C-alpha cells in the first residue's frame, strides 16, 4: 500500500492556549484497500486512534475543534523500497453520538517522515470543527480515513472501520446557550480532491427557499470558488461546487450575500491534492494500468534421444516464454514451474526429479523492472523458480524467459517414448 502518514497539526488547528480534554486511545478493526494499480490485496488490520478537542465543556452554539490522531495505522509499507518524506495528505471523518449525532470531516497537512522499506507507518493527525447544537453528553468515535499519496502518481488508499461505530475515544458535555442556536450544517462527500474537481456538499436545516452560497474557505474568508442557488422547501440542499483555489482548507455555506457564521455552516475541512501553482494550468491525462500475462511460442519440446544401456542426458530447450507486466504498480512477479513423472511403455517411468533446467531471462529496454533468472537445478514435482522481478516503488515491463532442459535418463530405462508435463505458473 502507498500510504504514508503525517505528523503535526492540521490546517484547522485549535487556537493558541486551548486545552484539550481527557481522551483515550482506542483500537478498532480496519480494512485498507491499496490502489488497484498496486496489485496488492486488501489489508485487514487494527488501527489505534485518539480524538481530542479544544473544549470539553462547550456551550450550545460554540465551535469545537477536534483532532483525530492515528497513533498506529492498520498497515505498514508493503514494499521493500523506502518512501520519501512529504508525499501524502490524510483525510477522514469522525462520528458524533449522544446528544448530537452526525459526522465531522477532518484533514491533515501534506507532511510525513520518510518510511523505510517494509517499515511501520508513523502516526499522523487530522483536524476539523463542528458547531454544538444540543446540550448534553456528546460522544466522539474515530471513523474512516483515506491516505492520498503523490509519489510517481496520485493514488488513494481508503481505510474503513469494519464494525462501525468504532469505540468512543472522547466525550464532551455541552450546556444550553442563552439565545437561538444556529443548527445549519453541511457534510462533504469527500475531504480532498484535485484542483478543478467538484465536491458534493449537502446542507441541512437552512431556511427553506432562501438563497444559499457554497464556497471554498481559505482560513479567514470565502474564496472565489462559489455556487449559489435556492434551498429546498425542507431546508436542505446538495450542491457540487468546483474547487480550484490552492489556498482552500475548507468549505462553507451561508445565506445572504456574504459570510455570516450566524447564518451559515462550516468550515468543513477540505484540502486540494496535486496543487497547481498560481498563473499556471494543470493539464491532465490518464495512463491506464493493464494486467500481468504470459505467452509461449509452442507447447511441445522434443528432447534428444539416449541409448538403452547408456542412458544419460536427454537435452533440449524450453519454448520461449514472454512475460508482460503492464500493471504499473509496486508488485513484482514470479514464474515457477513443476513437472510430472515421464511415463513410457508398459508403465515404465522416469522420475520428475531427473529433469533439471538452466534458466535465462532478458529484459526489454526501458522496462522499469529487471528480471532475474532462477537457479540452475532440478525442477521436480515440487517445482522451482524460472524467473522473477522484485517488488519496488514502480515496476513493470516486458521480459523473455528461456531455459536449457536436461532429463537424466537411467541407463537401463525401457526403450520407448516418454512424456511429462511441465506446468508454468505466473504470479
From TrEMBL:
It comes from Streptomyces finlayi. This is Beta-xylosidase. Keywords: Signal. Residues 1-18 form the signal peptide. It comes from the Bacteria. The keyword Signal applies.
